[in-house]
Specification:
The complex is a heterodimer of chains A (112) and B (535).
Chain A lengths: L4 H30 L12 H22 L7 H24 L13
Helix pairs in contact in A: 1-2
Chain B lengths: L16 H29 L12 H26 L3 H31 L1 E5 L4 E7 L14 E11 L5 H13 L2 E3 L3 E2 L5 E2 L7 H36 L8 E3 L2 E2 H15 L9 E6 L4 E5 L4 E3 L7 E6 L4 E6 L4 E9 L1 H10 L3 H6 L7 H22 L7 H5 E2 L1 H12 L9 H5 L21 E4 L4 E6 L6 H30 L1 H6 L1 H30 L2
Antiparallel strand pairs in B: 1-2, 1-17, 2-14, 3-9, 3-10, 3-13, 4-9, 5-6, 7-8, 11-12, 12-13, 14-15, 14-16
Helix pairs in contact in B: 1-13, 1-15, 2-3, 2-15, 3-13, 5-6, 13-15
Classes of the chains: A mainly alpha (112), B alpha+beta (535).
Chain lengths: 112, 535
Amino acid sequence: MADSPEEIKKHIKLYLLIGITLFVCTVLTVAVAKFEFLDFGERGFDGVDATIGLLIATFKATLVALIFMHLNHEKKLIYGVFGLGIVLGFCLLAITAFAFSDPIHYEAFFGR
Amino acid sequence: MEIPYIVEPRKDTGLNNSKIGIWLFLASEVMLFGGLFSGYIFLRIYADYPWPERTLPVLPGLINTFVLIGSSITVVFAWVSLKLRQWRKFQIYMAITIICAALFMVLKGVEYKAKFAHQAIRLDDYTVIEGHAHPQGGSHDHHAPKKNLNFTAESLQIDLRRVDDIYFETMGKQYTEGGFVLADNVTLSNDEVLEKGSAITKALIDTAKEDFLTAVANNSSIDIDLGRQAWKDMKAKYPGVKYYEKAEGDKTLNEVTSAYLKDLKAKRADYLAATPALTFVPSSGSATITINPYWGKLSHPKEGAKGNLRLKDQTVIFGITADSSIILAVDGIDFRHTVMKADEKGIDPVTVVANSWLLKDEGMNAIWEKHKVVTAKLAEVLKEKDRKPSQNDIYRINWQEIVAFQRIEKEGLKVEDLSHEEIMAYFPGDLEGFAGPSHKTVHYPEITVPREQVRFESVFSPRWNTYYATYFTITGLHGLHVIAGALVLGYYLFFGRKMYNENPEWLANRVEIGGLFWHFVDLVWIFLFPILYLM
């Protein structure tokens, strides 16, 4: 990376701000799980809680990736490499999902 | 030879090689953890038991999240300091990062230790009780066994093919103390006689085992030749008859050939008689055997029942089951699996729970009755907000509730007379149960669980269920990544001065690369914490 010292100095406050945001989001994640008035779906854990929790986690991860890991001004090659990893990660998820659609579970698969 | 393009970028990619290398590695790490997360998701969706939701203590995980986020900030500032050629600041920020890594691992260790000390038992009717196991027999020795299988042995059979040295050496002291001796004369294939009444020793077992294996090796080649001959002869005698068809009277060709083969073996002088097992009896008539519960299985777990205890090396001990119950100080009760099984069979879950073995105990029943009162009060409160208690609320009693009941009773009050909010005020805070329920500060109610009521038992380890298996796998792997990252960053801190003096930009690039790995480790935890602790 070709950041000059002057450019880096400008980012110091941004790093601190992102750090504080991450702390706040962490507290928010716990609050959403713990407090009744922030439980938007059914009582207890449900799909709504999962969605909110994962959205906050994704937001935090995006901040870390973009700012701390400098992905907001990287070369296209790096986006390609990392993106490929994420795509292949989802392929692993898909393979496991397809395993549950194995026709051996269905009686009709064996014929008459 | 110096590696090219580690400071100045390549002209074609515009990047230095280290940067491309670390991003390739991080892409592979995304797939590694992505695969584990997807495994967790499917294990959870398709679980055939109630998933342990929100049962982990949140505070250690929350502190670890703050620690890792803080270390992410400090590692960035360490890189900034190098870029600005501020060596002292670099040292300070990098030292804080490594201290954060150490603190993370210490907290992880505290969590793991608490889990390995915490016991869970799934009863025969699928009720789950959690707590700490106490030494068997009411012993006050904390090192005494807590879950051993106890047996009154009348005889002992050692399988010479499978007998394992480690099992035998560990059990050997008990065999000697029990006065086990050979039950009968045993003639080995080399005509050596092991005399009746010989004491059970490793030398005796080894002699018999060696003889057995020699005989088996000798016989195996004869078996093959004789087997071929027998089938050839019988196929010639009964042409066209299949092995499962009748050949002589009611006997199939297979049965006729087996008898013929037996005759052939008896006529062979070099066919050795192999003794596959040795039987020993205690000289006093009976002896007490106690084993680690994971070393064997009782055929009849009820105390006083006649049966056997089979070790994993196929040693079988015949006799009578002795008291092998587990004394558990209960800090958690979970009827959700019982209810799930009742629903599957179309039986009313309330009736099944009311008739469960656990509630026959007065103390446990008292806790359950108070819990029903609390759940009813909760239902009233939630009704105003158009909500209902969850399955967890209705059928699971956590340690906090048991502690609250004790505190209410201590003040001479009754749960029925308090409002839901007043009851909640007695619940302990997160700091009190930092890594889980403490059995040092609270005396939890005890119950003696007879062995025949134990369907499955385990401490909170990967063995207990798929949730804990995944929890330990992912957090353990993540912990190893934290250690590896800390070692790399520590190398830059302690051995980077020379490189800083020679080529500071090179060190800055290396710290940036190490920092990228560190941020990734933080990224994984950002997802791990809510998924495992809060969902």
